[in-house]
Amino acid sequence: MRRRYVRKLFNTKKPYDLNQSDGLFCHAMRENALYHYNHCKDYKRILDEAQFNPLNIKTMDDLIDLPFIPTLYFKHHELFSKALWKMPIKATSSGTSSGFKSKVALSIGDLWRGFKMIKRIFSYHKLWSIRPVTYLIFGYQPTKHSSAGIMKTAYGFTYVAPAKKRVYAIRWSKEKGYQVDLEYMKQEFIKAAKKRTPIRTIGFPAYTYFLLKEMEAEGIQLKMPKGSIVTVGGGWKQFYAEKVDKQEFYRLVNDVLGIEEKNCVEFFGAVEHPVLYTDCDQHHFHVPAYARVIIRNPDNFKPVKNGQIGLINLLTPMVEGTPLLSVMTDDLGILHDENCDCGATSPWIEIIGRVGIKDITTCAQGAEELLKN
Between the CA of residue 371 and those of 97, 205, 206, 252, 291, what are the distances in Å? Predict the structure, then answer.
């Protein structure tokens, strides 16, 4: 099946122009829904039981009725629309002691669309660089022992600027498996401050925050080389539950590392929704043209008005390997449509926290358990 509209959507040059891409997005969602309906018998069953015909997707409003799949479902069931051997990337969320992980697979076409999306979004946010940097990664060291999606995402990020060196906070050893070593990261920060090569961080904000707090308590004040950037992703929402303010994080980055708030960038995403949400200079997660967001009432799953809190439902026609068209997260959020001073015209998501479902685990929670241990 030709995926003409999906291809056109991911060729969109203006990553935050939703008004101009609404029609194309609707066509691409219908095209992608038909593909998965015809190639994944379990997805066909889900739509048939909901009495939903993909051909009924004719307007953006019709996407409200497209059956969503909770992230919890992917932790108990595998849904694939292509043979696994045909797909080069198999990624999982990081499980905890419960053992449940989401597993998704991406085709070569999915990776190509993802590359074009990242290229345009990173260009918009001026994150590309030809200057070599040292990457300080608050995440998993890539090994054959883990297929965590956050690990692959973090490694992929190290190609945004040439990597002179990669340093990992969670390292693998044959004796102990994955272990967190924040003292090692502290020493790497101290060494980096004495050199001219800029640093870039990426990974779990919990680790970054706890290390910076420790360094501040020890009276450590560094000045990272010019051009250094702190980026975080994969679990900032944990801080909302702990009442840790973003501004406190940015203050720590400035006081301990000498990196200004304007050089702090946050990402939001999920293994079950491989679309990149990058915060603007106002720290808002604007919805890119390659996705749409519906906020739903937790009681009846009906959409709520912009500005009201509810469950975050993420939509994209990007993937052909796994039916990820409409995914219901366990995140609570608000979709804002008021003007943003950054100039981007698309609505933006405010992530409030997570619903209290014990059976749902995330990458950040799995990492948090390692930290506690």
Answer: 14, 12, 9, 20, 33
Question: Which helix H or strand E contains 177, and what residues bound it?
Answer: strand 177-180
Cβ neighbours, 10 Å, residue 283 = 16
Q: Which residues pair with 327 in a beta bridge?
A: 69, 314
Position 152 scores a pLDDT of: 58
Tell me what pLDDT residue 85 has: 82
| CA dist., res. 92 & res. 316, Å (int) | 19
Confidence of residue 360 (pLDDT cuts 50, 70, 90): very low
Q: Record the tokens describing residue 34, joined without a space.
A: 């038909």
| Integer Cα distance of 225 and 259 in angstroms | 9
Tokens standing for 19?
Answer: 């008004």
Q: State mean pLDDT over 187-198.
A: 96
Q: How many CB atoms lie within 10 A of CB 342?
A: 16
Nearest CA-CA partner of 264 in 347, 195, 208:
208
Radius of gyration of the chain (CA): 20
Residue 135 near residue 145, CB atoms below 8 Å: no
Average pLDDT, the chain: 86
Q: Name the one residue in this structure whose structure tokens are 């040292």.
A: 134
CA distance 203 to 280: 18
Show the tokens assigned to 69: 């799949």
Cα torsion 205, 161, 281, 60 to 10°: value is -90
Tokens of 371: 């930290």
For the stretch 89-143, pLDDT in tens is: 776 655 444 456 678 888 999 999 999 999 999 999 999 999 999 999 988 787 6
262 class by beta-carbon count within 10 Å (0-12 exposed, 13-18 middle, 19+ buried): exposed
Q: Tokens 């961080």 — which residue?
A: 201
* Domain spans in the chain, listed from the N-terminal domain onward: 69-373
In angstroms, the CA 315 to CA 327 distance is 6
Residue 80: strand, helix, or coil: coil
Q: In 3D, which of 37, 70, 72 has the Cα closest to residue 52?
A: 37
Backbone angles phi, psi at 51, to 5 degrees: 55, 45
Considering the four listed CATH numbers 3.40.50.300, 3.20.20.10, 3.40.50.12780, 3.20.170.30, the one that applies to the domain covering 69-373 is: 3.40.50.12780
